Amino acid sequence: MVSNLFPFPILYLWVALIIAWLVYSIVLLVKRRFYKCLISLGMGLLILFTSFYVFWGFNYKIPSFTERLSLQVNEPNSEWIQSEIKKQALILDSLRTTLQIPSGIDYKHLHVNVEQAIDQYLIQLNQTNELNFPYKLHNNIRIQPLFNGALLRLETSGVYLSQTFQGHIDRGLSHVQIPNTLMHEMLHGYGITEESDCNLIAYLAGKQSAEPWIRYSAGIAWFRYLAFDWIAQDREGYFEWRAHLPSQIIADLNDINAHLGAYTPLLGPIKDKVYGAYLRSNGISDGLANYSYFVKVIYSLEEEKHIIN
User: pTM for the whole thing?
Assistant: First the structure.
């Protein structure tokens, strides 16, 4: 892929072009060349909108994971949530005993391992369930890290941009989170649009990876989504149980929270409203809640005894 020839995020070039376009439009406005200013703004917005759908946005028309399975999605009960998170805590403890999370990250090596895990799982998924996902394997999608806080200040960990054919994650993330976040954004590059589907496949593919760091990162992401649901049902009960987790898992959870909260948000509630509206406008009716929807999907898959792992 041509975008992979660049040793830096192409996003920086796009930002430079957008700034130049806005400055040019403002200059036209100051000079009272209103017609030219409107033409400049209109053409710029048209290029951004059209390029998004031509390069990637049309994938929103592809049926989601649950639609392909004709799955009836149900709400998990509190007993299942608590049972599942307790099982996951045991798995994490077993993995963490021998795991050394690297202090420095070889992104090239991590890309290879993550893509291999995704490809192997999608092949297995298609063969087991005859789903015939249309996603091209071995996409060689590059996920470029951005400087610390570039995305965390926008209260997000990663993003995939169709115009750059690259995904991006924030270097300021906890290293515990990086493999799973990278996998999530890579899956967008495979043409998977729903946040729930990316979370689902990142978890299921990640937990089968030969790389312990990837398995642990996927597992702790699943743990945290289960924790969000337990907290919504019984906050006091969750934190009372959490206090008795193995110390290293507590330290990792605290490290994730510390990194996510290290930067002052720039947009506040505006970001959630805008991004939620964007998701709904592209057919994801539950908006931001779609990120955690995959918890319900896994519960429903287990209920219907689908083989997905």
Answer: 0.92
